[in-house]
Specification:
alpha/beta, homodimer, four-stranded mixed β-sheet, eight-stranded mixed β-sheet, 21 strands, globular, 42% helix, 511 residues
């Protein structure tokens, strides 16, 4: 890689607040489970029957060819692939149970999978952005930068962004390059990419490989180096029911060849893309995921791959989507059990809502999506910060609200050790009936760190709050995200790598 | 009882919506537990040591006399009682593990305790009321009526009210009579009373006894009849640390004599009333509860009694209370385990917040108090609808918001059966890749009932929402509670019993 002139050196990250050391969330409680062994087996056998008898449409000739060679029954005219049971079971068992997702900053590497390990990632996909200052609008690259800055300063978001919003102000053909560049340089957390088709996926993989390389490497050497080192995970959606389109299949094949992780995720609104029954939806989702995993493992046996879950009930009386529902919670628990059955890490979704503002509905639907995901031990929880409006809009206030929810849930996973020392019995006895502990040495030593303090919640008296103009949580969130962005400092990147990334972008844009 | 002239006959309950049959919540999942056996034993032995060595102040001569006769060491001058370990362990084991709380309408009887059984009750105690129409103000008897109506029409609130707000427009000495009357006649759900001192508690017990009697009974006969029939549960607070005041002890003794249930609840803000450590707070709470249970069982061996839990961290940097925190969640789990260790039903608290409006903070703090309570299998969850402003204010909008949270959580407790029939495999196969299930016979038959529908959440498009003036959840909640109150119809009560209640009130007011 060429040594460039540009010397854009970043300082250390500083959100303007006391930083905690980087730490991945671990849920020490046993997972909540809603399926018994028999139900798990039934979902497995039924979905394998579905793969065998009905199969999937796979809209890519290369994918079909790979599957045919492995023994699948392929109807080329119909682009239909039927998967023999034994093929699926054998091949799926080759997928690794866990892997390390490497970050540019090795202190921020993530363990994907393994009992109780959880990572949180922000919103991905919306065409719109909103905040309480400028209102709702088409997203721009500047908004993508702001979201990356918010990720960088939010400790609890351990996963970086992956093309979080569509920058409408950039040419459609090359916007993915600018998005990947921002995702790589604006934070040093582990990354996600864009898996839409061969060219975009290849660009995404290459830029992350460069970002993880060193200045003496050619692009090819950087790509070779990540064969043994997972540096990005990318969503590959099924087009439910029972179909993968060509762009997604090419993305999946490209990722597998580079030994990077596809997160194979059907998106099922039960009642439309599946029967109006959650067990049905979870079973069908399972069949679709198994088809994707099978293909990835045939392309590159043992490559990292992630089971993706995203099932929500459709409200059939209004025709609208609905999130944060009891049925959605059940699907999280059940899906987590299926992924554990196959011994593959699961990716699911966190803070979902159909609300249009960071109000009470946004809070309860999001927390009621998030908590089941954490209680289910889902290892990768994305869409966990900023998702508003059924996923159409990324909101800065909602981002801050969701980070608050993530911090609460992370706090729940910290167990308080109970030993005889923890009771401070001497103090209780010395103070006796009717006294208080406000001035004890123990209180003075521990009050700063003993309990979680919310940066968003008000603890004011009613009178003080009324005096302050009755600010709602959404209004406080506006102050909060601006403050966080102001405190952001760009993390260090080797200027040669930065130059190499920019050079790659420039070359691809010319082509 | 005298037959009166008044014939105020109520119709059947009708909230203006499809009513579901009355059903108590049952959580089929195993409880979340944060303490191992050793920790439970350590909390037990340490709190018994505290009872033995330090003891409690018990500000009532009768209570001290009962305890002295049972072998406790009493220092009359200091009003201090030290409890021998063996006394506590023997006597606490006499408390029943579960009991039936009878409702005026026997279809609405509740099982208190027993694996997974949960009841939800509304707010209790605030001096203020607020709604978005009239703003914040001192509560009146009319507000208490409105809250009772909201309880009656909210299926998920299975427990009735107990003097929910202080009616500032009535004479202080007799307001409890009007409150009890409202609680008894405005809903036919099982009741809670007021346990503040001998006279008020006796009035509360007597009025509930009359309400459960029949027209041929004298008041004394009605009271005798409830010796074998629990008809109310009442909060008895400790005055933490390590003190019960006289009013509360007289309330407890009166309830025990009538074999009604005290919910013995310390209210500990950790850092002030206990050390700044949740294990300490939970241990101290345990000692205080054991003292109360011991007294109740000495007054009336085998009488129903409830372990009360209410521990929250004090934010020592601001001096403010805080609810819906990770520490609070831990305390819920730990307290539930201690109550199960003693085999006594637990009462804890549901939807708490320091927010002043039904906004995002109110939603996330409340749901983050409620979910741990349900996941912990806490049998009685009160303060679960309408609690705002750190408990100083009852809010009509918050009531509706909380009922929404309760419905979500109740929905989580309904497991979806997984059998081969549930997969609707024929439809999935017939529709095949790329189709949809919107018009299938299965969808048409099931779409109305398959999934939970929220009465509060918006599923509108952004455009429709903007067109409608961007209503927040709080604004929709205002419409919702008014609609619910409008749909309320008073449940049936035998007019003779109604007369008897009114006659009792009139007599007590004259005295």
């Amino acid at each position: 890689m060429r040594r460039g002139r540009s010397r854009r050196r970043g300082g250390k990250a500083n959100s303007g607040e006391a930083k905690r050391p980087f730490r991945q969330l671990h849920n020490p409680l046993p997972p909540i489970e809603v399926l018994d062994e028999e139900a798990i087996q039934l979902i497995h056998t039924t979905s394998v029957t579905l793969l065998e008898e009905t199969g999937l449409e796979m809209w890519d000739a290369e994918a079909r060819s790979i599957l045919r060679q492995a023994g699948a029954e392929v109807d080329e005219a119909a682009e239909r692939v039927r998967f023999p049971r034994e093929l699926v079971e054998t091949v799926v068992s080759q997928a690794p149970a866990q892997f390390t997702l490497h970050a540019r900053n090795p202190d921020k590497n993530l363990q994907i999978g393994g009992p109780g390990n959880i990572v949180f990632g922000a919103v991905g996909g919306p065409p719109f952005v909103t905040d309480r200052i400028r209102g709702r609008r088409e997203a721009t690259i500047d908004d993508l930068h702001t979201l990356n800055k918010l990720i960088h300063v939010s400790d609890v978001l351990t996963l970086g962004g992956g093309h979080m919003v569509e920058p409408s102000d950039l040419p459609r053909e090359t916007a993915h390059l600018d998005a990947a560049y921002a995702d790589i340089v604006l934070t040093d957390k582990a990354g996600r990419g864009n898996g839409l088709g061969r060219r975009v996926t290849k660009d995404s993989v290459t830029m992350w490989a460069i970002g993880h390389g060193n200045s003496s490497m050619t692009t090819e050497q950087a790509l070779a180096a990540i064969q043994e080192k997972v540096v990005l995970m990318t969503v590959i959606n099924a087009n439910s029911p029972l179909r993968f389109d060509g762009e997604m299949l090419q993305g999946l094949i490209t990722l597998a060849r580079h030994r990077q992780a596809s997160m194979i995720t059907p998106f099922i609104l039960a009642g439309a893309m599946s029967p109006v029954s959650m067990p049905s939806a979870v079973m069908q989702q399972n069949a679709e995921v198994l088809a994707g995993i099978t293909l990835a493992q045939l392309v590159s046996p043992g490559c990292p791959v992630v089971y993706g879950g995203f099932v929500s009930p459709l409200d059939l009386q209004s025709g609208a989507t609905s999130f944060g529902t009891p049925e959605g919670a059940w699907a999280q628990y059940a899906t987590a059990q299926m992924a554990r059955f196959y011994n593959v890490p699961l990716r699911s979704v966190g803070c979902l809502t159909t609300a249009h503002a960071a109000d009470a509905q946004a809070a309860y639907e999001s927390l009621y999506s998030l908590m089941p995901a954490v209680l289910a031990h889902i290892p990768i929880i994305t869409q966990a910060a900023g998702w508003l409006d059924g996923g159409l809009t990324a909101s800065m206030e909602k981002f801050v609200l969701d980070v608050q929810l993530l911090e609460l849930v992370a706090g729940m996973c910290q167990l308080r050790p109970v030993t005889s020392d923890t009771f401070i019995l001497d103090d209780i006895q010395a103070i006796g009936p009717g006294g208080h502990h406000l001035g004890t040495a123990h209180t003075i030593e521990n009050f700063r760190t003993a309990f979680y303090r919310s940066p968003l919640s008000t603890r004011m008296s009613y009178e003080a709050w009324a005096e302050a103009g009755q600010p709602t949580t959404a209004e406080r969130a506006t102050e909060r995200w601006q403050e966080l962005v102001k405190g952001y400092k760009r993390p260090f990147i080797d200027p040669d790598l930065d130059d190499a990334l920019q050079a790659y972008m420039a070359r691809q844009k010319q082509e």
